[in-house]
Fold:
Amino acid sequence: MRVIGLTGGIASGKSTAAKHLTQLGAHVIDADKLGHRAYEPGTAAHAAVGAAFGAEVVGADGRIDRKVLGAKVFGKPDALKRLTDIVWPEIRRLAEAEIADVRRREPSRVIVLEAAVLFEARWEDAVDEIWVVVVARETAIARAMGRDGADRAAIERRIDSQLGNDERRARADVVIDNSGDEAALVRQLDEQWARLHER
Structure:
């Protein structure tokens, strides 16, 4: 069965889409959760992050202190690239291991890799098709402010640091427009799910 790469910008509704696909029967792999696993003590990425960014990024409990690490890379493109060059390949390795495991156990099950950085990390070749959830900029700002309690300027900075909707649309196989309500989002997902199973 197919592996779908599910991606979208901040407050696009990507997680809501992933939750609905889980209810439909997909096996969803959350790249964010794999990112946390990639930092676990004893992993190659944990050691490499400590070596690259200094002992102070490792907390007293032996875990990577993401706040300290974040301060070292925030607004510093070279440092951020050094970090993603360590962590993204490890997340991909974990995702591919999980995909292989699910394929072995349930060969007909649809697998969804939910990854905000799918394009940035160049994981297109790890999936069979790419579904992009898009939302108008103002809607994303309003939703993110309501959800995260962050101020508008902070949200706009995060949106501006990501790929734009136009570029995402151009690289997508399926575009899910989440500018409406949740029922409209679910309808589009159900249609695409039906298409997958018509094959």
Observations:
- DSSP finds nine helices and five strands in the chain.
- The two ends are 10 Å apart (CA to CA).
- Residues 1-26+110-199 form a domain with the Rossmann fold fold (CATH 3.40.50.300).
- The chain has a mean pLDDT of 93.
